[in-house]
Amino acid sequence: MRYSILALLMFVAPFSSPAFGLEVVATLPDLAKIAEAVGGDRVHVTAITSAVQDPHFVDPKPSFVVKLRDADVFLISGLELEIGWVPPLLDGARNPKINAGAPGYVDCSRGIPVIERPTGEVTRAMGDAHPLGNPHYLLDPLNGVIVARTIAEALGKADPAGAADYAARSKAFGRTISEGMFGKALVDEVGESKLDRLARSGELDAFVAKGGVALGGWMGKMRPFAGKKIVFYHRSFSYFAERFGLVVADYVELKPGIQPGPSHLADLITKMKKEGIKVVGTHAFYDEKVANLVAAKAGAKLLVVPLASTGSSYAQLFDTLTGQFATAL
Amino acid sequence: MSTSLPLLLLVATSSVSTSSTSDLEAELAAALGSDPQPAAPAPSGAPSSVRFIDIALDLLGAAGLSTEKEATIRDLEGGGHDPKNRGFTIQNVELTLAGIVDPYLRGDANIVLQIDFGGETVIELEEAYLTSLALPFNLQLKAGQFFTAFGRLNPAHPHTWDFVDQPVVNSRFMGGDGLRSQGVQLSWLTPLPFFLELTGSVQNSQGETAVSFRNAAGETIAGRELIERDVDHPGDLLYLGRLKSSFDFGEETTVVLGASGAFGPNATALDTKTMILGADLYVKWKPLTNEVGWPYFALQAEVLMRRYDVPDPAVLTDYGLYAQALWGFVRPWVVGVRYDFARGQDVAFDDYTTSSDPLRDERHRASAVLTYYPSEFSKLRLQYAYDRADFLPDGDAHSVYLQAEIIFGAHGAHKF
Amino acid sequence: MTELPWWFWPFLVTLILIAIHTYFGLHVISRKVLFVDLAIAQIAALGSTVAFLFGFETADPVTYGCSLVFGVIGAWVFSVTRTRDDRVPHEAIIGLAFAIASAAAILMSAENPHGAEHLRDIMAGSILVVTPAEVRTDFVIYSAVGAFHWVFRKNFLAVSLDPEGAARDGLNVQRWDFIFYLTFALIVTMSVHIAGVLLVFCLLIAPAVCGALFSSNFRVRLVIGWVTSIIAAILGLMVSSRYDWPPAPCIIAVYAAILVGAGLVGKIRGAPNKGRAMSEIALAGGALVLTAFAMVSFLRSEVAQRFRVAEPGHAEVHPEHVAPEHGLGTTASELIAGLTDEHDSVREKAAEALAALGSPEAADALEKALAIRGEDEWIRVRVADALVRSGGKRGMEALLDLAANGEARAVRTEALTVAARFANKPKAPLPELTAWWKQASDSARWDPAAGVFRD
């Protein structure tokens, strides 16, 4: 019997090493898609949440624990988005490779310029506010490029033999996104990094006007709607709005995580009518009744937009979003 | 074997050291004046904040009314933190402290204050333990004072319960404050393709929080008085084995199954033992497009059995179960029902009769609850309970409770 | 019509095997001659090897027939030698038969190129690729054997459990022994083809052992054996699918775990002082676990010392993006610091600002900035611009290089424009400028006031 115990232990030992390629687990589906683009065949990627789910409120199910147990690299979105459910998963997974602080734990918010960082005191009187800033940065494709680099670096550390491969694929991903953003012609003309800097500093329009090549891609598609006002359910769309020139004038939620009462909705509807706001944006997991009510009373259109890509790639998210807004506005 | 610990640490830290050498190299290369690279990017998406300790305070209080007098209420509500007054009870003021000690250990402590029915403030160290973070082979070690990992409800803190009070069977077998003691626990997440976790622990078997085991001298059970009993050999400690498994059916339903066994000595004689076996089931349905957690449906049930040796010689067999169903039908309301049942084997001893013993008679209870959550951090709850028990003067009782809870500070997320 | 999952037929055939083998296994351990099944399985496998040498595949009816003949012969030999006296123990004969059959199979397969695979298939089986036809055949034959055994169960049980008593009752023990071994050989032969020798042996003995640990009643043992086997089969197939390992060894390994567990539980149940027994087991288990850890850690550390980890490559520059609140100074020294900032927009603005300043003290830093590998072309244009204005001629070379080799067309245009302005030839095409600079570079003088080179 003693030999059986020993045999059993020997049997168990090799289970912890990666059988085929790197095992990458991401919290959000967009992070998973970027990781797939960067890792290619060398990695096996799974996402814990799905694109139709609210990433703030996820049950830390035991089946997620099993996924993390076998993970070599764990990608989180960061900025305390997943703080409500990732710690018990890491506790249960007992995988020292991906504990906070270990090289396998990758906070993809590294290097992202965060917006809506609260100034002054943060207390819960402000609702469930995000004290480190708005965490939905993946809705700006240029941030996706930064994330790809972070992921490539992390994968390279975990799998040094493939580091060059990941770096190259990350560059290719960056190119795809830039071409999607600005149009291939402009990217060939001006170069990715410069366009990125121009878009972020707001000088893109002036620069393009001086040159001979037109602005294509998603930026070009949204150009006619620059400055248009919309109302959104929750503060999830700020990065998209800022990048593509929309203005989120107000929110249906009274405060993050707090349901709106009738007086706030009345104020909102009045404001919408006065300023001619024609679009109310929301996600599939928010209460449709309230959003429908606001849209109907204010004579606006309700747009249910995805928070993450439901297609096969990260870029598809923006094809969908720009298409939806272009039709609605 | 003494060499294995530093080797273990070597194994654990080896993954960390390879990354630090490459950083060091980059630094050296920069310092020695070769290609002047811009400084390595700082790991910041946000300004770094210092977070050495998380502190949270939870306040749980209730107001109650019952058809029974207060003395009987105390027998009806066997839980240490259950509302026992006609009037107001501060069930639980729980101060939770947690923090990462170093890359290998995490610390947690739970200090509970309550005001008992006499108006006295009682302070208890509910839990204080360290947890390992970096053991190989998916192992985890916990050491200190902690709740024994028996079933689903025993290790859960009162402010996470779905009802105002503890199920009858838990009060009887685990004690009013839950089964908790000082010791060591080792748990293993098996490498199987589904979730299977094995836990084993060894803890002290004496004290008021081990009522089915050595308890304290002078206490009685079924009319027999407990004696002083020491630990003579390792078999006199409290052992626990637990198996927990989980399966998902689609993306919306999760089932968690568990089986637990607690073994230890009891103090009715110098060689008597107690064994508690339990099985638990949890089923949760929640659609993917839930709004902040609504709607959802959760079912939870536990069945327990206790074999308590007494020196006659005889064995006292008690068993019980509870089953509860909760339905979050519209945000932010949750409605639920629970059925409790507990029964002890009828045994006569001197002038003790099972039917007059609130801790061993046959008892049924049905409760209905409605909870309102203004936010994640507060709740208001209304509960009605109907009791049928042998020891009650009228045979049955009705009770109504109103509970309020607030939590502020940084409280860690709860387990599934 | 929904497609059946991949594990359907393998699981079904495993269930059929479990059903019949558990029963036979109980007989086998009652007879206390455990290796007869292993020997018969190996002899049957030898038969299939012989057929294989003549070019018949494992699934051909001829192969089945051949191994059946061999199996029956083996069974006949064992039944005849059972009642011999104890000078030569029966186990010795059976063990030798196993060894000889295995050796013969190896020798015969040695010359054949597919010999090794064939031998491995015999041992590990091929449950995964079992065909529905094979499952149907097995089900029919096994049910027939099972029914036969049920009809004559009294005789079979008597002959296995109490042969002396049976003889006294007037039963022809030798004949019933032979019939038992015949049916046994038939079953084992068919099973070996699908499940392999190892799994057949395991499914015969392991459930019987589990049953025997907890009961002495034949029926209870049968039920316990069936339940544990089904659990082992399910878990074994799941593990096999997860890690892409052959299923038969996985099932055997899972069974090993179940046996360990059952053995421990049996030991605890039988011990007079249960707490003591548990603590002893816990200590023994703990000691073994620590030993295993020590061994594994030791192995890992030695290996790590012998094979050094390869040096990581030189870090590439990653242009990152400016955080909104990052500010830039206005004095030359602050701007120089900005040239090596981590954020690319800061570096670009620093270079632009230095171009406006045109102070010679920045020349050194600008030259260094120009040498940064992998820097963005636009930034290099600005740096080169600033360098020229600070009096560094190297800037001009860089501009001309960028004008010729810049990746983005706008970069090439911009570099050309700037270079042309510096050369005081605003509309000159690139070849002209390059040629001019080639001969004028040494003698040209920078005129800061006008912002041009004078040659």
Structure description:
The complex is a heterotrimer of chains A (329), B (416) and C (455). Chain A has 14 helices and 8 strands. Chain A has helices at residues 2-12, 29-39, 62-69, 86-93, 141-158, 163-182, 184-190, 192-201, 204-210, 217-222, 238-244, 262-275, 288-298, 314-328, and strands spanning 22-26, 43-47, 73-76, 105-107, 229-232, 247-251, 279-282, 301-304. In chain A, the strands form 2 sheets. Chain A has a 4-stranded parallel β-sheet, with helices on one face. Chain B has a single domain (52-409), classed as Porin (Beta Barrel). Helix content of chain B is 10%, strand content 49%. In chain B, strand 8 and strand 9 (224-225) form a beta hairpin. Chain B starts with a helix and ends in a 7-residue tail after the last strand. Chain C folds into 2 domains: 8-292, ABC transporter involved in vitamin B12 uptake, BtuC; 332-454, Leucine-rich Repeat Variant (Alpha Horseshoe). In chain C, strands 1-2 form a two-stranded antiparallel ribbon. In chain C, helix 1 (8-30) packs parallel to helix 6 (132-151), helix 3 runs antiparallel to helix 4 and helix 9 (173-214) packs across helix 10. The radius of gyration of chain C is 42 Å and the shape is elongated. Chains A and B meet through helix 3 and helix 4 of A and helix 1, strand 6 and strand 10 of B.
Mean pLDDT of chain A: 88
Number of domains of chain A: 2
How many beta-strand runs of chain A? 8
Q: How many H/I helical runs of chain B? A: 3
What is the 3D shape of chain A? Answer: globular
Q: Based on helices, strands and strand pairing, what is the structural class of chain B? A: mainly beta
Q: Can you summarize the main beta sheet of chain A?
A: 4 strands, parallel
Sequence of strands across the biggest β-sheet of chain B: 1-2-3-4-5-6-7-10-11-12-13-14-15-16-17-18
Helix content of chain B: under 10%
CATH architecture descriptor of chain B: Beta Barrel
- Rg from alpha-carbon coordinates of chain B: 25 Å
The CATH superfamily of chain B is known as Porin
List low-confidence stretches of chain A: 9-19
As for the CATH topology of the largest domain in chain A, it is Rossmann fold
H and E string of chain A: HEHEHEHEHHHHHHEHEHEHEH
**Oligomeric category:** heterotrimer
CATH third-level topology of chain B: Porin
- State the helix count of chain A: 14
* Termini separation of chain B: 37 Å
